UniProtKB/TrEMBL annotation:
<dbReference type="InterPro" id="IPR027417">
    <property type="entry name" value="P-loop_NTPase"/>
</dbReference>
<dbReference type="InterPro" id="IPR014001">
    <property type="entry name" value="Helicase_ATP-bd"/>
</dbReference>
<dbReference type="InterPro" id="IPR001650">
    <property type="entry name" value="Helicase_C-like"/>
</dbReference>
<keyword id="KW-0378">Hydrolase</keyword>
<feature type="domain" description="Helicase ATP-binding">
    <location>
        <begin position="1"/>
        <end position="141"/>
    </location>
</feature>
<keyword id="KW-0547">Nucleotide-binding</keyword>
<feature type="domain" description="Helicase C-terminal">
    <location>
        <begin position="183"/>
        <end position="336"/>
    </location>
</feature>
<keyword id="KW-0347">Helicase</keyword>
<keyword id="KW-0067">ATP-binding</keyword>
<protein>
    <recommendedName>
        <fullName>ATP-dependent RNA helicase HrpA</fullName>
    </recommendedName>
</protein>
<dbReference type="Pfam" id="PF00271">
    <property type="entry name" value="Helicase_C"/>
</dbReference>
Length: 336
């Protein structure tokens, strides 16, 4: 999207601002864009996240978190530094994103030259189009469909046989799913080509516990890699490095839409996500673990259908999937 804006002549009278909900995504997208444009990161393409500003006076495209752009409105109310603003992953509906959406709607009549692009893979198109347009003339909508390969979905709830007293733990369910993946490979003959596994987990603690369980299992020819925001840049970049054998990436929902992990053929989805929620009653921000929406579950499933046919193992029942909300609930408006 920023490359298209550059080709259309945007970025000359001001910056092309491109927001991401997470620091990791802002850094990785900026690096990818600089690589594709064959420029040094920090020159024509830069990024700014909390405590780090890698941009310069020659920067044309600036990647940043939603909070950085929101903070800039305090000393630049009309956002005169920008001629184009791209709000990415708008479906996440955090407080920062919702504030920006409301702020930009009020700003556009004062800045008719400013172009605003709202993007998301699971966005509620009609509501957003009405918000930025009128009831008779909604904002224009551009839908882009990508090529995907077929993905098999297997439901494996964390429930043991009737003779067993206890259900499987999350870690036991993931290990069992990895063993099932090995059986699927032998059956289908998928022993060559992409073989990596992406496991979605709610947070850092669950990632550490799952990594310990998988390492104790001593899976042959398998590398276990965590992926979450608090890791150093060097550790995060290991996910993109070439490798041999199988790699199991344990990631938060940053890998759902904000970041594309290469080489994924299998997805293990426990159906859980840790989401920041604001309670207007207690006036505090909390991080509860919730079930994902149908749109988020389908987005996770699609992560293993990008380069070859794949398999998604959901650690919950099909009834749970169908009974969940169709779209993610806005983070700033859900009751606690």
């Amino acid at each position: 999207m920023p490359k298209m804006c550059l080709e259309l002549g945007r970025g000359r009278r001001g910056l092309i601002g491109h927001t991401q909900p997470r620091r990791l995504a802002a850094r990785s997208v900026a690096s990818r864009l600089a690589e594709e444009l064959e420029v040094s990161l920090g020159e024509q393409v830069g990024y700014q996240v909390r405590f780090t500003d890698q941009s310069s006076p020659t920067t044309l495209v600036k990647l940043m978190t939603d909070g950085i752009l929101l903070a800039e409105t305090q000393h630049d109310p009309l956002l005169l530094r920008y001629d184009t603003i791209i709000i990415d992953e708008a479906h996440e509906r955090s407080l920062n994103i919702d504030f920006l959406l409301g702020y930009l709607k009020r700003l556009l009549p004062k800045r008719p030259d400013l172009k605003v692009i709202i993007t998301s893979a699971t966005i509620d198109v009609e509501r957003f189009a009405k918000h930025f347009g009128t009831a008779k003339t909604p904002a224009p909508v551009v839908e882009v469909t990508g090529r995907t390969y077929p993905v098999e979905v297997h439901y494996r709830p964390l429930v043991r046989d009737e003779d067993d007293e206890e259900d499987r733990t999350l870690q036991e369910g993931i290990l069992h799913a990895v063993e099932e993946i090995e059986a699927i490979e032998r059956e289908k003959g998928w022993l060559h080509g992409p073989r990596d596994v992406l496991v979605f987990l709610p947070g850092e603690r669950e990632i550490r516990e799952t990594a310990d369980t998988l390492r104790r299992a001593e899976l042959k020819g398998t590398e276990i890699l965590p992926l979450y925001a608090r890791l150093s840049n060097e550790e995060q970049n290991r996910v993109f490095a070439p490798h041999r054998g199988r790699r199991i990436v344990l990631a938060t929902n940053v890998a759902e839409t904000s970041l594309t992990v290469p080489g994924i053929r299998y997805v293990i989805d426990p159906g859980l996500v840790r989401i920041s929620r604001y309670s207007y009653r207690s006036k505090i921000q909390r991080l509860p673990v919730e079930a994902v929406s149908q749109a988020s579950a389908n987005q996770r499933k699609g992560r293993c259908g990008r380069i070859a046919e794949g398999v998604c193992i959901r650690l919950y029942s099909e009834e749970d999937f169908l009974s969940g909300p169709a779209l993610p609930i806005p983070k700033s408006s859900a009751p606690i």
